[in-house]
Structure formats: C-alpha cells, structure tokens
Design a protein that fits this description.
With about 425 residues, this protein is mostly helical. It has a two-stranded antiparallel sheet with strand order 1-2. The chain is globular.
C-alpha cells in the first residue's frame, strides 16, 4: 500500500518530462485517483475510518493555512528599486530568513517571492529561485514554532515556545550564513556576466514602497488563529475569514501589480491532496517499526528525520520521530508534561529531530508546503525553475548535503560522550 505514494512521487518527478501538457491538464485526476486507492483500503479493508478522518483534518488545516497566507500575502505589493546587486540580494535573503520566524515560511515565501523576481528581473536564473526556497521557504523558519509546521506541532505537544530559539539559533545561523555565502559567490559571477547597462541599472523614479498594508491586520488574524485549537474548526474558519476579508478589501490594482491568480494554490491543493492521502501507509509503517531502525543517538535521529522529511511532508515525519524518541524514554507524546520532561533531559535528540525536519524540508519540492507554491508562482511569472529531479541532483545534494553534514559534525557527533 506504499506503492501509490511511490507512484505519486514518480508522477511529480517525471511526468513534466514525459508529457508536460498532459500532466498540467490531468494532475488533479492523478492525485485524486491515487489518493482514492489508499483511502478506500483504509476504509473498507482496515476499517480505519478514524485514521482517514484525522488525515482529512490535517489536510484541511494545512490548506487553510497555506491558502489564507497565499491570499493575504498576495494582497501586499512590494515595489522594488532598480536592479539588485549581489550584496542587496544577500541582505534580502537574510531579512527573509528572519521574517520566516515571524509570519511563517509560507507567509514569507508568498510575500517576498514576487519582489525577489522583480529585483532580479534582468538576470534571474534557476539558482535564484532555488536559494530562495532553501533560505526563506525552509531553513530560515527554524527559530520559532510559527516558523515551520513541524515546530508548531511540537509546541502543541508540549515543547516550550522559546525552546527552539534557545537551542537551535547557532545551527540556524551557521546554515543560513553558509547558504547565503554560497549564493553570493554564484550571484556575483552571474552579475559580472551581465551587460554593463544591467549592472549599473538604477532607475531614479523607482522607490521601495509597500501597498496593501491593510492586509497586515488579516495576517495578524491568521497568526492568532494558528494558536486556537479548540473548538475544532475555529482556527480554519478564522483563516477563511481573513482570506475573504483580504480578497474583498484589497484594491484591484494591487492584485494586478502582483499578477495574482489562484493557479499556484490550486496546484498545491491538488498535489498535496494526493500526497497527504497516499503517504499514510508509509508513515504508519515507519511509526510501527521505528524501534527497529536502531535510533539510539542524536546523529541517527538527525539523518533519519531529515531523509524522510525530504521524501515525505516534514510535519508528520517530525511527529513520528518525536514519538519514537519520547517512547524510548518510557514517556508519552500525548502528555505535555512528559514531552516537557523529555525536552529538558534529552534536548540533543529533540534538537536533532527539529533541525532534521526543518532543514531537510528544503531538499525536495514536496519536503515543505511553500516549496511547490514558490515553484508555481515562478512558473506563472515565466521564470525558469528546475524540475523535481534537477532540483535534487543539481542543487539540493551538492549544496545542502555538505552544509547539513557540517551541522551533524558540529552538534551531534560527540554528544554521546558528553
């Protein structure tokens, strides 16, 4: 029953190569059909309707958050000045990494990707998009539970709000600065290859300007809704209210300036419908057999959590390995006091799981929700983006893997002896 999930991943990776136009027209049917196989099996064979209902609620919450942030951020237009030089791009990425912790990686991604494209419109390449996904859509949001969905799930289970900031800030700084450093080298070379008139482009009448600031109130409403878990459905309802309020109160010229359409969120909704449904057997198998993986060090937790966060959505993967780590100590993930106890006594393992989930979410388009959304927005804007396979082989493996290996060496290699 893990086969539908494998087919879903293969379709996302290969169909744009095999028959792009057919895939663009029929991917909703593929996602729905593969998801239906898994749902039918759980309902009729395993009689696990409750499990599917839980997954449906998780998917609804995911789409409510992603969709509302997409609509609200799409109502804010950032007007940029001239053509960005490499150092300006680096500062922009650093600001995006910090902002991801305040409004989430999804909110920061949707808010900043269009200005990012406009800043580099005369020389934008695939690596500009890839590093934006690396930094703003993923690793940047590692300092607060608001930043990335896995950390928020940990907070709901009992991990203190400020725990991740106090424990993970140094790893965050190393990864963010390392990636920005690599980006600067690549962007500097790209900048020097540009014609002189592009390198010196500064249009005097253009200024940095924000339009649609009324949407900040709707953004605040979404952030409040994130923390409202009772009664069920109230959080998603408030997010819907924020999205509708933003849509009907944002002036039409602002949406036009952003080239706003619902195409990107529609693609994310259909593809993740298939992913959420088909990945259930893989997650259940992993949870049942987690004890057989030999997870007895923080190093192993980091790499196992990371590898599967890249292949699966990183939020449920985080919970699966957190449950395994807590269970090893005879504690329960469903008891907040016991999770708090685990966070204090075994912070190195919790840190490994947290960093693995957040960082490795950048390794594929499906590792974290904002990744596909950024890709879709860029394609809508006629900006070249790497395919699923190219993203992994050309960028994620040669760039991310060495940086993550450095994190593993610095933070997890000797903790068993300390």
């Amino acid at each position: 029953m893990i086969l539908p999930f494998g087919l879903m991943l293969l379709a996302i990776a290969l169909m744009p190569y095999v028959h792009r136009h057919w895939w663009e027209a029929h991917y909703p049917k593929v996602a729905a059909a593969l998801g239906a196989v898994t749902v039918t099996y759980y309902l009729l064979v395993l009689r696990q309707g409750g499990r599917m209902l839980h997954v449906a609620h998780e998917y609804a919450s995911f789409i409510a958050l992603i969709g509302s942030l997409f609509v609200v951020a799409g109502g804010i237009h950032i007007r940029v000045k001239g053509e960005a030089k490499p150092w300006v791009n680096c500062v922009f990425l650093l600001i995006g990494a910090v902002l991801s912790n305040l409004i989430g990686t999804t909110g920061a991604s949707v808010l900043l990707i269009r200005p990012w494209i406009r800043m580099n419109k005369y020389r934008i390449t695939a690596f500009h998009i890839v590093f934006f996904i690396f930094i703003v859509s993923n690793v940047g949001g590692c300092l607060t539970p608001i930043g990335d969905p896995p950390l928020f799930l940990g907070y709901l289970k009992g991990v203190p709000f400020w725990w991740v900031l106090t424990k993970c800030w140094s790893a965050w700084a190393i990864v963010v600065l390392a990636l920005i450093g690599v980006f600067y080298v690549l962007d500097r070379a790209n900048f020097l290859r540009a014609p002189p008139e592009i390198r010196e482009l500064e249009t005097a009448q253009e200024t940095w300007k924000l339009d649609g600031l009324r949407n900040l109130a709707f953004l605040a409403l979404i952030l409040v809704a994130v923390f409202l878990r009772e009664p069920p459905g109230v959080s998603e309802a408030l997010m819907g209210v924020a999205a509708l309020g933003s849509w009907f109160t944002t002036p039409k010229p602002v949406h036009e300036a952003n080239d706003f359409t619902f195409g990107p969120i529609r693609e994310v909704a259909w593809l993740f419908l298939g992913i959420f449904a088909t990945m259930v057997p893989a997650l259940d198998y992993l949870e049942i057999h987690a004890g057989q993986l030999g997870l007895d060090t923080s190093m192993k937790f980091f790499w196992f959590t990371g590898a599967l966060s890249a292949a699966l959505d990183n939020a449920p993967t985080y919970l699966t390995f957190l449950a395994a780590a807590v269970g090893r100590q005879g504690l329960s993930l469903n008891q907040p006091a016991q999770v708090l106890e685990f966070a204090g006594a075994h912070d190195h393992e919790l840190m490994a799981i947290s960093l693995g989930a957040v960082f490795f979410g950048a390794a594929t388009y499906i590792g974290n929700g904002p990744n596909f959304m950024v890709k879709s927005i860029c394609e809508q804007a006629k900006v070249s983006t790497p395919s699923f396979v190219e993203y992994v082989l050309k960028y994620a493996l040669p760039i991310l893997l060495p940086v993550f290996a450095l994190v593993a060496l610095l933070f997890f290699s000797r903790w068993r002896e300390l």
